[in-house]
Design goal:
Two copies of one chain form a homodimer. By secondary structure, chain A is α/β, with parallel strands linked by helices. Chain A contains 15 helices and nine strands. In chain A, the strands form two sheets. In chain A, strands 1-4-5-6-7-8-9 form a seven-stranded parallel beta sheet, sandwiched between helices. In chain A, strands 2-3 form a two-stranded antiparallel sheet.
Chain lengths: ~350, ~350
């Protein structure tokens, strides 16, 4: 890893002393960028994901413009169910749609734990190409959804405010649910190991819908499986776990082999530090909507946020993905505020 | 208040010793009941709200079937903006739609703080009729939305996963936002005082979208105004505040004049008690989706929940409104588990 010129991000993950914290933004390779929209106008979602030249170009676009301290490979968490024989469509503007949602043990039995090379080789090609383009300037993050979050889509069949069908499946057919969660976990572990071999320096697990569960149900249906992934990957690369809305699990999560925990904006830096006992690096947590504030106010908020988290064992980020309607100057103000800290 | 035969709910709100905690369910007068659906098939949303005979009948329907310890008047939080000159439509299945959302100081200036009798007299008539029908058997709850939650709909114009336009309005036009929040607050205080005069025994404030805000923004845009309402009502009736997703504000909220705090299912009873220091009664918090579990498991979960909260200073409820697809036997199991405790 030492061959990466700007290793601020890797040092923060190891807990080392830094002059300033590193910064990147969830969904930085995304819809707020005009250069991304230009590609999006020409190529559909699957073409963008599955064409290494497009995925790598999209990955480096925000770096060229803003100079973040880490890049994150353009992809989607639903490539995993797709490889498992659970096809999905992407309805632009509406999000994912799974025509054959999982609703029974029989449906679960029909899913497969795939050969990663055969099904997701295009991701590995995109990683290799991106690493070449990044030229060892900054580290590259690869990601996966948490098994629970993947299950949410597989069972619900689409986005939802409550994922009630996914929860109903877990609460009324727990054996089938756990079988599916384990299959997703096994696939994810193999997938992330291949990603590291292909060149990603760090992996992040997104548990976007963990916060739908009670603390007890979270342990049973989500954290148990994330922990398996962390334990399996710990000797391969640093792992960041971001569980939106799961403040209640932070203490448990900090006692694992995770390198960093992402936090959303509904927790103060002080309480996040208290719950995690300074045992792990924290990443977050500006409210993405706050990037609609004037640039001057954004700078103030970022400076206060760094002061509150402390500059060490800290990665500056948003509390969730950047919104499509954020002005470029405001995103720049966010990044620059960190660099000028 | 002493003339109410089953005063378990009122005693729990005062913090007294009880044999078992009282129980009711948010949205108990709602779509999971076939007798409600029969009325819904015949009369549209506004007719149901504005016809005292229908609103009172809907209010007592769940009591007849399950015998909860409190009734809550059938109405909607959006009657407040409607009275303030911000009309809305109710699209069945999709929720509220406001054709002229508030987006500027000028829009705010065009709203009014209405005369309650003239605009919302039908609510008072429904209360009087419901009180007659309840015949002093159990107490009646009246409710209002929090000013922040009302603003969310007024600005966004409809339901949303993120209420990004509402937050943008607050972050970029804070003076206009605060003017609107104060007008909603003034209207809500007058409205709730009239409701108490008309006969409700307790009021509950629903801050359904408070959890969208960071702890700092919550203080500025939501709690400040809820506190005004609590302080204005404290000599009229006990006030319950339910702020979904706002675990981070529980400590501050418990130091107010509130009688009880509602909590959602993403917090353990133990931590909720710890944060509120046993200063107030707590209400909650079973995951509404957990009512899809088999009745036997529901009973176990309820018993454990009462054990964990403790039977005193506690009101059994769900952590949010009951879902439309909950079987009647499961709702009954929830209520009965409390009565058999």
């Amino acid at each position: 890893m030492s061959n990466i010129k700007n290793d601020l991000f890797l040092r923060a993950l190891k807990g080392g002393i830094v002059d300033r914290p590193p910064v990147w933004m969830m969904r930085q390779a995304g819809r707020f960028l005009p250069e991304f929209m230009a590609i999006r106008d020409k190529y559909d979602f699957f073409t963008r994901c599955q064409t290494p030249e497009l995925a790598s170009e999209i990955t480096v676009q925000p770096i060229r413009r803003f100079g973040m301290d880490a890049a994150i490979l353009f992809s989607d968490i639903l490539v995993i169910p797709q490889a498992m024989n659970i096809p999905f469509e992407m309805k632009e503007g509406l999000g994912p749609y799974l025509p054959n949602p999982i609703r029974s043990q029989k449906d679960v039995d029909e899913t497969i734990v795939p050969n990663i090379d055969e099904t997701l080789g295009y991701v590995m090609d995109a990683i290799k190409l991106t690493k070449e383009m990044l030229n060892n300037e900054i580290p590259l993050i690869g990601f996966a959804g948490s098994p629970w979050t993947i299950l949410c889509y597989c069972v619900q069949g689409q986005g939802s405010k409550t994922f009630d069908k996914a929860k109903e499946f877990c609460f009324t057919q727990p054996i089938a649910a756990h079988t599916l969660l384990q299959k997703i976990t096994d696939t994810t572990i193999a997938y992330l190991k291949e990603k590291v071999k292909a060149g990603v320096d760090v992996v992040q697990i997104f548990d976007s819908w963990g916060g739908m569960l009670s603390p007890t149900d979270y342990q049973e249906f989500s954290w148990k499986y994330i922990k398996q992934i962390i334990d399996a990957l710990k000797d391969d690369a640093p792992v960041i776990a971001f569980a939106k809305g799961c403040w209640y699990a932070l203490e448990d999560m900090s006692n694992s082999n995770v390198s960093a925990l992402g936090v959303d904006w509904t927790i103060t830096p002080q309480i996040a530090r208290k719950l995690t006992g300074n045992k792990v690096t924290l990443q977050g947590n500006l409210d993405p909507t706050r990037l609609l504030s004037p640039p001057k106010e954004i700078k103030k908020l970022v400076t206060k946020m760094i002061d509150d988290f402390g500059k060490d064992k800290y990665i500056v980020n948003l509390g969730h993905g950047i919104l499509p309607n954020i002005p470029l100057d405001n995103a720049k103000a966010f990044i620059d505020a960190v660099k000028e800290y």
